[in-house]
Design a protein that fits this description.
The protein is α/β, with parallel strands linked by helices. It is about 25% helix and about 30% strand. It is built from ten helices and 27 strands. It has a five-stranded parallel sheet with strand order 3-2-1-7-20. A five-stranded parallel sheet has the order 9-16-10-11-12, with helices on one face. Helix 1 packs parallel to helix 8. It is globular, with a radius of gyration of 22 Å. Bound molecules: flavin-adenine dinucleotide. Flavin-adenine dinucleotide binds next to helix 1, strand 2, helix 8 and strand 23.
Amino acid sequence: MADPRVFIIVGASLAGARAAEGLRDNGFAGRVVLVGEETERPYERPPLSKGYLLGKEARDKAFVHEASWYREHEVELLLGVRATDLDVGSHTLMLDGFEPLRYDKLLLATGSRVRRLEVAGAGLHGVRYLRTLPEADALVEAAGRVRRVVVVGAGWIGLETAAAFRSHGAQVTVVEVDRAPLRRVLGDEVAGVFAGLHEQHGVGFRFGVGVAEFRGSGGVLASVVLTDGTELPAELAIVGVGITPAVELAEAAGLSVQDGVATDAGLRTSDPDVFAAGDVASFVHPLLGRRIRVEHWSNALNGGRAVAGAMLGEPLSYDRVPYFYTDQYDLGMEYAGWVEPGGYDRVVFRGDVPGREFVAFWVKDGRVLAGMNVNVWDVQEQIQALVRAGWAGSAVDSAALADPNTSANIVW
Ligand SMILES: Cc1cc2nc3c(=O)[nH]c(=O)nc-3n(C[C@H](O)[C@H](O)[C@H](O)COP(=O)(O)OP(=O)(O)OC[C@H]3O[C@@H](n4cnc5c(N)ncnc54)[C@H](O)[C@@H]3O)c2cc1C
């Protein structure tokens, strides 16, 4: 290659694959090495709890690129290889079982890892997590077989897997320590919509309790014992109690870590030749003026692509409004914005909430901080414009926000 530079991406993930794509599309002709500890080539995770788990989407649809794409674009894939150490002084990445690699620029796209429940019986066969494709394969295999499922944690993963297993005809109980699902993200007002949706589909909830123990016989799960003493028979328990950013390499390298790998608005870490993108990056959002870490698909998709330009020396101010979506039963939803738990003073609804066809706005001092459309489509552009205006300090009239007949200049 004419260009002698070596760019390494750690994490053969969505952010990593998009960065590789961005480097090549920007004309980078040096070596691109994509290192990933999983054995699959980069894939997207949202189908693992939706289309693939429901049996509606083929496994192959999850992959970011065809296998041939990596060959055609001369992106070296080192799969099943863990990066064990990073020396930013000598620009060297240490790999498990491979020679160290020297780099000119390096991207940390190491994403997140699931939080594990450390209780008795956690190692029983039938206690599952869902982050990776092999973990999804195991759930797909179980879907046709198991009758009683306990889901631990009423976050997005918990609720999506609950919906999928209900669709497969299993009896599903969701256990949640909080008093409602998704309360930290959505607050009480909208949490009720999701509780109602699942109850209508026959999901049983146990709120305000945790898991004391998984009980089994012969190494196989038989029941889940809750902290109030209740014992729920189950052949399968799916634990979805959150994730933590995979910051080990950054810590080993002495990079600044603040929740995730700390970067500036250009996704550059405290070392000028190391960047971070996707779930692992804790970046300064230029519009919010503070550090956030976004655990969503679109942030890996867009951040991965954006950081490629930054690695090539282009100026970057990564100012996307955080966005995510979910599909559960017949409810489709998109959410854009950023609200800390309890960081709003009211939720304004527009549309039919009981009929689950509405838009919700999280508002503080009249400013829209986030918006969510439920079974209403093609309104994201307008919601994100409102959020940007709200972050910039513009207040809107709540009555107009709530009124579906309000025309263009306030909402759409
Ligand atoms: C089941 C599921 C459903 C989801 N659904 C949605 C959804 O509907 N909407 C939404 O917005 N988001 C969703 N998400 C979240 C979304 O998938 C993540 O935000 C996204 O995957 C983050 O991508 P990433 O590239 O940052 O990292 P990750 O996807 O976490 O990938 C990081 C990769 O780096 C590897 N790695 C880590 N450390 C090392 C190392 N030292 N050496 C080598 N490799 C390493 C990991 O093994 C992993 O493969 C879902 C997530 C899951 C698990």
